[in-house]
Fold:
Amino acid sequence: MHYKISYSIPQRHYIDIECTIENIALPVIEVQLPSWRPGRYELGNFAKNIQSFKVLNSKDQPLSYHKITKDRWEIKTGGDSVVRIIYNYYAAELNAGSTWLDEKQLYVNPINCLLYCDEKLDDPCRLEITVPSDYALAGAPKVIDTHTEGDFKTYKAMFANYHTLVDTPFICSNSIQHNLFVLDGVEFNVWFQGECKPDWAKVVGDFFIFINEQFVLFKSFPTERYHFLIQVLPYQFYHGVEHADSTVIAIGPSYQLMKKELYDELLGVSSHELFHTWNVKNIRPKEMLPYTYHRENYATTGYVYEGVTTYYGDLLLYRSGIFSDADYFKTLTQQIQKHLDNHGRFHYSVAQSSFDTWLDGYVPGVPDRKVSIYAEGCLLAFMADAMIRKQTSNKASLDDVIRALYNDFGKHHIGYTAHDYQTIIEHITGSNWNNFFGQYVEGTTPYNDLLLESLNYFGLELSVIASRRPYESFLGFKILETNNETIVQSIFPGSVAQQAGLGVKDKIISVNGFEVRNNLNDWCNYFWREPFVLTVITEGKTREIKLKPSKTMYYKTYLVMKADRISDEQSDNYNKWIGRRF
Structure:
């Protein structure tokens, strides 16, 4: 398969694509546009972005075709061995997994927009990219030739197969900023596209440190060259997507990039996505090896490929010294807060939630139904790490498990199963882990006791206080404030709010007759010692909700911290975990 990508009017956001399929021996072929993209385990329906579509033979004569599914076409070749498909793709969404075109850049995730023929998936692919002559190409395409003609330049690249091609995002721009360094013979490229003023000394220094920490864990790297493609946006944003030898990160706002809070977010997502190079791009669930692009790829092991990655993404920043105690405890606290605030944990296991990412994994869904493979998976990894260390007297850890998965499965392109993951842990510890997996992974047993025990193993404790928002603590509901609207986001089961009839998605418009404009907390504090009435809108109907605060504490605020007094054993455990004294 041979692809050509070009465009004429960038402000229209339409990319022109030509796909040529050669050496066809069949009278009828089918072509498919991917229905989803690896790294986002839900259907993407990219075909909705195709406006025009035509099919020609080798003599530029039209061929007959028709759609047989939402993103699959049947083409009658008429006996010709060559088929050319000419179409366009609307590239007007900018995130870490999308495709975007404007007057400043051409940014392509090929998985969004390049058709394929089943019979040609494993054949070599060619790609030609035509852009303005002053545009540089950022990313992992292996360029074999560059040709400039007038105001335009064409990059030509080769790929081993379609799988490699669609796992290789790229950015073409004349304003992209670039730096690189080499670590253990591997070249790391850092690219910033968009308005930003990177402190290169700090960026390169910090990236070098956390990448080295990941090298220490795995002992080797799967590729010779790697690219961090960072889209810096002028508004608040946070998103990352992993690839075999690159990652795309979208983050913003521009003016805060080098300030601590957002810069820590950049380090966190960069460490997370780099870890995916081993865990999911190489250590891959059996159900996804190889990826099947035209339908869902169901797997119950999201707690491994996303949960373990979430755990190590921040932990390795902590081990490397880039994250302080406060930085790391903040991220761990966030995972615990998400877990304990989510009452879906009583109804749906993390394994079930992994399977159902394809159903509603990236939206809130109905109240109290499911959990997150990221948050719950992270805590499962943390607890498993503590248990392994405890059962082996710190002679082994989750490090050994993930390394074994890479050495035994990832390096040999063998897909693993949930049973394989458990078996490795049992082999390393010499213990039976049926209870752990049955209760916490496949079941809905509360994490609380094991989580506190795991924290205690390292000399840590979990502080619990009332939420700073009284309507969360003593009324039992959370809100989302946006565009001067206050929307009920979640309700604590059995709380005052639930019993009074408050509902998720209710819009709160006043407290005791006073209009609410992103200031519900202020009004609640003002009227706290008095009875008060919320006026809400439910499905267009105005209602009044009478509330009286309870003495029961519903939503709580959690904080991981070091214990004031610890034993020598706890200090040693912490030292073995992090690599430095308590």
About this structure: DSSP finds 17 helices and 28 strands in the chain. Residues 76 and 571 are 71 Å apart (CA to CA).
